[in-house]
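Bug #77: duplicate submission created two jobs. Keeping one. Sequence:
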Amino acid sequence: MEPPGSRDAGQSEIASVLSINVGLSRPLDVGAASRGLSVESGIVKRTVSSVVEPSPTELGRLGFVGDEQADLSVHGGLDKAVYLYPFEHYDWWKRKRAEAGVTHEDDPLPFGFLGENLTTSGLMENHLWIGDRLVIGDVELKVEAPRNPCFKLNAVMGYRSAVRHMLLSGRSGVYLSVVKSGVLRAGMPIHIVPGQREESIIHLLAWRRSRARREP
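Kept job's structure:
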């Protein structure tokens, strides 16, 4: 299956927040899927606000209260304060894990499983360009970059090819900076405010995909 399409994202789409997820930095066993290591990571998240229980969650310039990142080169800091991931990709990942013998295809994945802070509905990578703004209530976020996965994703997914699958499929999610902080709840609508539209997320993902295909 090819990555999300390339239709024009100039329209002001409305999506919604399905869950808000945070996690503390702690040792992550990567031996089963990667290199026999245990490393510090904040990739494991828990849901603190859901559509069923839309608890208010404070968001500052460096991310959500209660969220930590161990390696700021891949997540965290001003430019990667929030990681957003589309729920629409979850079924695809369930199939990939089942094909790898990790689990059964019908086993559910909890929100935040990809390490994301915001699990969303109706907001795909092909809707977004670098510099677009996402307005959620009084909060304003800016699209900064697609995720460039590291070996920790292999550990969470439970098989060695997860990073390559994310790169080749384009199912990356996006990193956001916080332009205006505030309080968010699951269930809130997301409004896209287009930026200058000079570089699309899809274009960047296609470039990464071409590189991944050339690598062994």
